Amino acid sequence: MLEIKNMLVFYENAIAVNDLSFTVNEGDIIGIFGSNGAGKTTLMNTISGITLHVKQRMQREGGQHISIYGEQIFQGEDISNKMPHYRVKKGIVLSRERHPVFRDLTVEDNLILGGFLIKDKQIIKESLALIYEIFPALTRLKKRKAGFCSGGEQEMISIGMALAANPKLLLMDEPLLGLSPTAQDQVVQALSAIQKLGLTILLTEQYARPIMPYITYGYIIENGSLIMSGTREELMQNEEVLSAYFGVNK
Ligand code: ATP
Prior knowledge:
single chain; alpha/beta; Rossmann fold; four-stranded antiparallel β-sheet; 9 helices; globular
């Protein structure tokens, strides 16, 4: 479904993503794990087209020089030079880290806004019903202003907004960041529900433990480079992975 070939991203002369290649197949839940500054957000922003958009804005405004190399192939099409809105229409939708929501809008209006590129009201209605099914906790919060929701609820809204855009490939950048264990559970359980809808998920996290039972394949990155990959079982048998990403020392 998605093929990333030799992706390199530089901010000025500093490398953020270093020759990354990987494939995401339909129905997968792929985890990309790495510590602070490993390049997770840059990778997600590049796949969603945001890095390209920022690069072009910087070029116009004479700001920071950003370079992007490599190929990004989605469903057989080279999307490397395509803008974010084009990618959203094709089905690549990003739920960004630290759940940015529109604080003064109600929960439901936030969700509707997530589907703003979709013109068919019936499809939006069906998406809303699905989102409330995946996150039952949001049903009773429909009319509440998003700014008054907890961090966990805001993360559900943020993922809900991405789902409202009707994705085929859902990108989730550190969806568990800063959440309580209960909120983490709700988000993690949503992964299986989302996968059952036929969606493919590519997500990043610093800490692998809560996500690991759900992934089909995982990659570990450090300083922008791929250092290890494997199935859930393979990664969990590796002592370095266990101590760095699971907090387990043998
Ligand atoms: P975190 O978990 O802290 O969010 P991350 O794995 O998402 O980290 P990135 O935010 O992609 O990592 O950062 C990768 C590297 O690129 C880091 O060294 C970071 O300092 C650098 N970087 C990120 N954004 C910029 C930018 N706009 N300008 C310059 N350097 C940047």
